[in-house]
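dumping this here before i forget
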Amino acid sequence: MSYPCRYVGSAKMTEPAGVDNVKKALKDVRSQAKQVLRAMLMVQKKSIKICDRGMKDTLMSAEKEVVCTFGLEPGNGNFLVVVVFQMGAYWCHVLNMRKEQAEGGFAALKDRFGGGDLTLLPSFKSSKAEKLDRKLQRKASAAPKASKAPQPPVPSQSGPALTATTSQRFVGYYLGSVPVQELFGTEVVRKAVAINTRHRMKLNAIDKTDGLGDPAIVEVTMEVVRTIDRHTGSVMFPEFIKNISYTCVLDAIDSTDIFAYIAVNKQLGVINCHIYHVPKGSGNRAYMSINQAFKLLAADEKTRGSNPFAVVDPKREPASELLFRHQIHRADLKAIQQIGAGQFGSVYIATHRIRTGKGQFAPEPVMRAVKLLRNAATPED
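structure:
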């Protein structure tokens, strides 16, 4: 059963039920609301869904077991609230409706879920829901804090952790990028995803083989995130970790995650949100890998300071007689900008002061591309 409404927004709650807790959540939603969306409340036998009427996007989808409570705002029959447990937290979703629609939606929810008086529903208090609650709470508490900006809670990473000399790969589809105005925020990502979805739907309406995304691999290293074409193995584009300001994982309505990150293109002076579809769970692991990359990069920069060419390891392999005559002193190099990074090292544009004699240098330095190999690199690399 469907009921037209206006989606005001959602707010996180510390407790999932109770009149006072819901009133506080309502106050938080109204204070944060920027744009009310024309939406549709869909009440099904074992689930509830809120969809954007204009873009057909799913704003919220929840199975019966994670619906905590619902009810009409006390003293105001035009606002219907639904509290669900998702992403390790309780979320209060607020719908503004005509009174008859609000009463109809309330009656449908009560018929399928019981309750309706802003107390915990029997289905949520069941043993299955309690197990789910404990499981998600453990995962949420195990997730580390974001290194750059506030992030949504995510499960702890499985598998080997990212290190300074290794990379991690995640298979999925690259859906494209959307210009954004802000560097941080899940809502910024949601809006970008909505724009991207609308664009892909238009493409798909013209050609059913279009708008599905490009088969890709997301490769995360200590310094860069690469998007690689799955068919050809070529790099579609790289993004330096230091240019990424925010990462986010959104729940998709099927068995996939929507993984996205916001990055600044300093050369063009624009901010883009890059969007991917990845298998369920891979989005959280990609998020954790980027988080770990920030930590590794910060530790490396702390060791080297402002000079990337500084000697970190005092142990130096002597150059052969042939190479010794062409040896360049690190002190004569000055980094301008990093232009590349890979599993084995980094590439910089730098100036090089040319030595012409004892303590003498050429009047003008020359431009060089300098590649730094990591300690783990072999002579073949």
